[in-house]
Amino acid sequence: MPEATHVGLREAAERLSVHYMTIYRYARTGRLPAERVGSTWRVAIADLERYRVPEERGSSTRNSQPLRPMRLLGRMTAGDEPGSWSIVEEALTSGATANQVYVDLLVPCLRTIGAEWAQGHLSVAAEHRASAVATRIVGRIGPMFARRGLSRGTIVLGAPEGDLHALPSAIVADVLRGRGFEVLDLGANTPVRSFVESAQGANRLVAVMVGASSNESVARITEIAVDLRVAAIGAPVLFGGGAIANQSVALDLGADGWSGADASSVIDAAEGITSRSTR
Question: The domain 148-277 is classified under which CATH number: 2.40.50.100, 3.40.50.150, 3.20.80.10, 3.40.50.280?
């Protein structure tokens, strides 16, 4: 008989001298390469021979392993919410902050998914599965950004009409809240009037930030700046997101400035506004 090349999880656990549930968790989260066939998992013996179970005890290993977006990417595109959350939870218990999970783990996955879909390497179904999982992850991590103390003021945030991507603004909103700002996140496909009404009702308005993720959604963005000025909103209007390449483009579209293409740039922009206002 030909020599076996794969084993089940129980035998894999015995070969590595670990508990069955440990191997199951590593297979489910992608830490150990494994193939699911029906209701069972199969692990290549060659992978077991190369694999070394990382030390799970002791503070000396905390933060010693880099976050690996590709592990999360596989679980997200498979629509595996429990497996995806296990990877996020593993990162958090290893010492990563909620902000690091966003910036170094989730956002790189979302960028890769967008690029793969645009190039035809990822199906629409896989993209939707991943987006649904990402939305649930953001919902679970969001409360971790809550910060006590006085508010630094309010930022109105959203995407223009025609832009159907709500995740970018949700992630940016959480990061801003972690820096002490109150955020009115209007989400995706937001009518111009909603930006104006929210800005008018905001307490200590710091800025209105509009993020566009595609060229198609830029068409309505100029109208937002015009209507805010007609309504005598004194706070600066900033445009950003993947479809706004730089400061010059933002200014040409009628904004007072550019908030950048990612959460870190948005934070810098918000910090810059507040520092100037306190001088």
Answer: 3.40.50.280
Check pLDDT > 50 for residue 2.
Answer: yes
pTM for the model: 0.75
**Does the domain spanning 65-145 belong to CATH 1.10.3720.10?**
no
**C-alpha span between 110 and 181 (Å, rounded):** 25
217: how many CB neighbours lie within 10 A of its CB? 23
Location of each CATH 1.10.1660 domain in the chain: 1-56
The mean per-residue pLDDT over the stretch 232-246 comes to 94
Per-residue pLDDT at 261 exceeds 90: no
In whole angstroms, what is the distance from residue 17 CA to residue 93 CA? 23
Count of alpha carbons within 13 angstroms of residue 230, beta-carbon side: 11
Q: Is the dihedral of CA 94, 95, 97, 98 positive or negative?
A: positive
